[in-house]
Design a protein that fits this description.
18 strands; 16-stranded antiparallel beta barrel; globular
């Protein structure tokens, strides 16, 4: 009897100890699971924080209005349908207005993805992907990019639409509007070298691009290079490029185009001098242009007055010339000079307003690129367009607000 009681007590004691051990083990497991969950949450928060640190977003915008004294619709237009976007003699808010957002993500320490969306007043504010590329920087600081990129052929190419970055109301129309596209899809490489006290940057590029306009035209086999030299307050840039054209327009299809440009600047913090010269050469009847501008600006506290002189002229008029007995001039012949006077006022951090007056003059006996200076006659039952000047000068008055954020 006594033995049975002892056995029963022993079994009960063992069962109790086993239950306590199981309960303790279960409690330890729960605590471990809770700790693991807390660690997972902390890791997720850390990863989320790391992702946010690797992501940046910024933007820029311009809001402007202006008026032209004449109808300035182009006879042949690309990025815009009129000079600087101005098509008629009414007050217009669209030409100088745009907004852009740029998003960058650091994939790792050497790779980055960038996309830039731009909405322009002249395009009814429809968003367009202006930049979309992935870049990789090697240990020797050579950077390779692939995707949709800006054609690096001008001094202002990298910030062409960032109005806040330059003192003028807009880059020179005579120089910057003679190339039918500002972006391309392809690859570029960028590397810099120290040459004594100067820095030399080389940027070759290849790709293709759709031409804006109504031609259903594409620039294929784009290949070129830009070279930039920086020395103290001086900067120099040269660029060359060539491309083939594929188009529904028989006058363009199969032709080759070439570009060459030279530019220089001097900026001592107070005075800014900038100038560029370009040549656009296209096979066939399409005009070949020589263009240039010279500009000077002076920074006085928050005010920057500036002047700009620009000229553009076709160089192959004889190749399109009508028979002399007709006494008519081909409307694709063009000659034009622009005189700009303006003032920039940096009235708040990251914000500026610009006042600009531009006079267009010196058309010679050409249409200066404007459709209102062209008429059509019939010879032998065939329509013949010819220069018929309705105006020989025009002015544009504009105000532009620029901001970066």
């Amino acid at each position: 009897m006594t033995t049975n009681k002892l056995t029963t007590a022993t079994l009960a004691s063992l069962a109790c100890c086993s239950m306590q051990a199981m309960a303790a083990e279960s409690s330890d497991q729960e605590r471990i699971q809770q700790l693991e969950q807390q660690v997972a949450v902390l890791q997720a928060q850390q990863n989320s924080s790391d992702l946010l640190d690797r992501f940046t977003i910024n933007g820029f915008a311009s809001v402007g209005f202006g008026v032209a004294t004449e109808d300035l619709e182009y006879l042949v237009g690309y990025d815009t349908d009129g000079y600087g976007g101005f098509e008629d003699d009414k007050i217009d808010f669209a030409p100088d207005s745009m907004v852009a957002l740029q998003m960058s993500f650091d994939i790792n320490e050497q790779a980055q993805a960038v996309i830039q969306l731009v909405g322009r007043g002249t395009d009814s504010w429809d968003p367009e992907v202006e930049w979309a590329y992935v870049s990789y920087t090697f240990d020797n600081d050579v950077m390779v990019r692939g995707g949709r990129l800006r054609l690096p052929i001008f001094m202002l190419s990298d910030y062409l639409e960032v109005g806040y970055a330059y003192p003028f109301a807009r880059p020179s129309v005579e120089v910057y509007n003679n190339v039918p596209s500002s972006t391309y899809e392809g690859f570029d490489l960028r590397t810099s070298f120290d040459v004594g006290d100067a820095t030399l940057t080389v940027q070759p590029f290849v790709g293709q691009s759709d031409v804006r306009g109504n031609f259903n035209t594409e620039m294929t086999e784009i290949i070129g290079s830009a070279v930039e030299l920086s020395y103290g307050n001086f900067g120099f840039r040269t660029s060359v490029a060539q491309a083939s054209l594929e188009s529904d327009d028989d006058s363009l299809d199969g032709n080759d185009g070439k570009f060459i440009g030279f530019g220089g600047s001097w900026d001592n913090g107070d005075w800014l001098f900038m100038s560029e010269w370009t040549r656009v050469d296209v096979d066939g009847i399409f005009p070949d242009y020589d263009s240039y501008y010279v500009s000077l600006a002076y920074r006085y506290d928050v005010f920057t007055p500036y002047i700009m002189y620009a000229n553009s002229e076709t160089q192959d008029d004889d190749e399109r010339a009508y028979p002399p007995e007709l006494g008519l001039r081909n409307p694709l012949d063009s000659e034009r000079t622009a005189y700009s006077l303006g003032l920039r006022w940096d009235f708040a951090p990251a914000m500026a307003v610009k006042f600009d007056a531009t006079l267009l003059d010196d058309f010679g006996s050409t249409a200066a690129g404007f459709s209102d200076n062209v008429s059509i006659t019939s010879i032998g039952g065939n329509p013949i367009p010819y220069v018929d000047q309705q105006f020989e000068d025009a002015a544009i008055y504009s105000v532009v607000f620029d901001v970066i954020f």
